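My current task is to audit a protein record that another person submitted. I need someone to confirm that the token line plausibly describes how this chain folds. Take the sequence as given and treat only the tokens as open to question. This is what I was given:
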Amino acid sequence: MMMVRLNTRHELPQIGIRQTPGRLDESAIIQPQSHGRNLQARSNQTVTQPDLTLDSYQSRKTYGFRTQGDYAAERGSRGQSDVQSATSKHAREGWAKATTAARRGDDIVQNIKSEIFADYEARTVFTLTSVPEVQMQGQPSEIIGEPEQSDIAVDIETAPSARIHYTPGSVETYLQNEGFIRNWISYNRYDILV
């Protein structure tokens, strides 16, 4: 006897998903810009050399060490005073001789001899003077110049807003396969090939 068999074949429906991810375009982001100046500090200072001035001329002059100008001035003034004193002396002696030469007891030769030998009998005269101190003037070393201060400044320039381009993503669903159910009849056996 023939047996009727009911064959069934089915396939479930399939849903397809088409997806586009969102995208952020980072190339449009404006990077901050840094501008600055860096001026280093400078000393610009130097030290002057100390100065010492010694004036020992007055001290040396006391010991007899004079310049040619002082020596010539001293000898010139002494020569003038000697000339004046000799002139006045000779004038006095001349007037004395003129008025007393005819008198008795006035021996001219004896007077001349006594004057000549008076220089030999003169005593040595010592003069004490104080020796002036050496004049010193000193100038200490000084620091001159004005230093420059450092000046460091950094300016950061930023955009007021970022230019970001965003593309939103999307998700789309669709029916990729509708699915089916099929039934058929076979005899005496199941039809597994169909």
Remarks:
- The longest helix spans residues 68-100.
- The chain has a mean pLDDT of 82.
- The longest strand covers residues 4-11.
